[in-house]
Write a structure and sequence with these properties.
The chain contains twelve helices and five strands. The protein is of the alpha/beta class. The chain folds into two domains: 5-154, NADH:ubiquinone oxidoreductase-like, 20kDa subunit (Rossmann fold, 3-Layer(aba) Sandwich); 165-257, no CATH class. Strands 2-1-3-4-5 form a five-stranded parallel β-sheet, with helices on both faces. Helix 11 packs antiparallel against helix 12 (247-257). The radius of gyration is 19 Å and the shape is globular.
């Protein structure tokens, strides 16, 4: 009988939502324990087994020098490392600090800013160590997360959704919110995976799964300008959401940030 794969789940700067997505697998997670040993997962249990680990799921972005040291140790202890969620993949919502001077925020938020030790930016895991796979979302889709863990346990390539959120909208029969509600929607340039959750409730896509391959953000920005009358910082903020630090979104937002 083949030995179980040792799975570890790690948290950096994040809200814990992606870890909760794994716990939300519930019955499936119980079945998975036949092939996977949850060796380190402090969100679920205080019991912790030492590495090395076959698979490490890493949630959160890197905000401190301590984070940098710790993620290097996680990489050294892991055969296969998966960056899990928007924070780990692109820096997350906290990467809004990357568009300004972080000291301004520190002084505004903390009573004793001199005690705060932080890096100037919020950065993804891949900026610091080699990442074997990136799993997007805010939080990640529990179905995709389960597919990745099962596929790795079976020694095969995970089968994940491709295309844009617009394709998911069409499959679900949702009316286009950009056309019907005149809502700024990042669906045309966002990677599929969420099941078009926000458009299903009449809201524009916030880009939680990050830009899809060859995302034409400039064309979509032009549509927002012509149809919705957006411009300057208002247009920049459309791209400054959950995945604001992802290259395509960050570059497009900076194109408009200083325009008036």
């Amino acid at each position: 009988m083949a030995s179980k794969l040792k799975l570890a789940v790690w948290k950096f700067s994040s809200c814990d939502g992606c870890q909760l997505s794994l716990l939300d697998c519930e019955d499936e997670l119980l079945a998975l324990t036949g092939a996977v040993d949850l060796a380190y997962f402090l969100e679920a249990s205080s019991a912790a087994k030492p590495g090395p680990y076959d698979i490490s799921l890493v949630e959160g972005s890197i905000l401190t020098a301590h984070d940098q040291e710790r993620v290097r140790q996680v990489r050294a202890d892991s055969k296969f490392l998966v960056a899990m969620g928007a924070c780990a993949v692109s820096g997350g919502l906290q990467a809004l600090r990357n568009f300004a001077d972080v000291n301004t925020y520190v002084k505004a938020v903390y009573q004793n800013p001199g005690r705060v030790e932080t890096l100037a930016t919020s950065s993804p895991i891949s900026d610091h160590v080699e990442v074997d796979m990136e799993l997007r979302g805010c939080p990640v889709s529990k179905d995709q997360l389960l597919e990745v863990v099962v596929a790795l346990a079976q020694g095969r390539k995970p089968d994940l959704a491709g295309g844009s959120v617009c394709l998911e909208c069409k499959r679900a029969g949702h009316a286009c919110v950009l056309v019907s509600r005149r809502a700024a929607c990042l669906g045309p340039v966002t990677q599929a995976g969420c099941g078009a959750l926000c458009p299903g409730y009449g809201r524009g896509c916030f880009g939680c799964f990050g830009p899809r391959q060859q995302a034409n953000t400039a064309s979509l920005a032009g549509v927002f300008q012509r149809r919705l009358g957006l411009g300057g910082r208002d247009l920049a903020r459309v791209f400054q959401g959950i995945s604001c630090n992802a290259d395509a979104f960050a570059q497009e937002s900076r194109q408009h940030e200083d325009q008036h």
